[in-house]
Specification:
Layout lengths: L12 E2 L4 E3 L7 E2 L8 E4 L2 E4 L19 E6 L2 E2 L6 E2 L2 E5 L5 E14 L21 E11 L5 E3 L8 H6 L17 E2 L4 E5 L9 E7 L17 E6 L4 E9 L9 E12 L6 E7 L15 H4 L11 E5 L3 E7 L1 H9 L7 E5 L8 E3 L9 E8 L1
Length: about 375
Amino acid sequence: MGTGSKPGVEPHKSLGPDTAQVGYKYEEAVVSYQPVRNASWDGMKLKLENVQIPQRSSVFFFLSRVPAVIRSIEGRDVMWPVSSQPHLRIEWNTDGTLLIRNDYHEAVLSVSPDWLSSDFEAQRTDEKTGWPSFTVNHGTWRLTRQGQILYDSRKLPWPAHIQKSLVAAIQPITTGKRVPDSAALGADHRLVLQNGLDGYQGQSNEQMTTGQWGGEVGADSHGPDGLFLFSSEEHDRYAVDLIRFELAGKLSKEATVTRAVLLLHAEKEGSGNHASAYKVLQPWVDGKTWWNNWGHGGSDAGYVETKPAFTARLIPQGDTFFVVDPTLIQQWADDPSSNHGVLLKAHDGGANFHWWADGDKGDHPPQLIIEYNVQ
């Protein structure tokens, strides 16, 4: 962002669509945005490759922890690419969405297309950033990678230790008018399943491979306990994972599942790619299932459904969130005998693609988040 250099002007006063009075020492500034994606830290220094600062101008750098910036508030442009201010906050939610708390009547956000899913089609694009833009009204919202604005109409998922300390009469969070075509998210209950959490030990997984890692481990014998994905159609080599959560007794018969999210944590840095999960049709036993005794890793007919149940972009290191079709969780809750879990398989990534994540015995086991109402 460039600025002129005359003193005596109050900051942040808009003069037009692309011009503003900026700072106490400057008169006018032609403001432009340039996202920088290849920034890295060198000790205490921030390194920006291929970034040039023109002479006789000033450049300001804004670091954001979320892939979104505020573009306007109640019809007024926001000159700086910030993601939060006192009355509007954007932050990560535990289910992989962006949690937006907006005290204004209306705000417009721009969201990085790198974060949004590959099949998302933008209806509006911000002129400054070139990013898809979204309008949110007053209240608490969640934005998904698929571009859905979810209306968080009841209460936030408070941790258990905070719930116990809350006053019983505390009122739920209320929101303003819903944005047209936005999905309703409000749910009275939230269930989190993860090995080691509140005594739960019902999650299991099995790694199956075509046998090129460590002899025949995962092909003719039990594979490692962690999750591993590999997919090279050219070399006909694969690594897939079976994942299952025991749901029996966890949801009442009156429960209606409204939303579900699967969280997988990659401690070791791998490669980026997409992966899909397929509903499993055949039973399997942890520790006794491998590629060659379970339908060639589930590729034989009748082992898994042919259509994926859900898909997400794999994060090379850190948390990957899969938004699960709630009807799948509802089926398993209504008929626990049909719950054989899912088969996770990466899209073709070539010989250089590898992705690891913690399994049922890792420090960060898979986590299933279920939101539901009780009739």
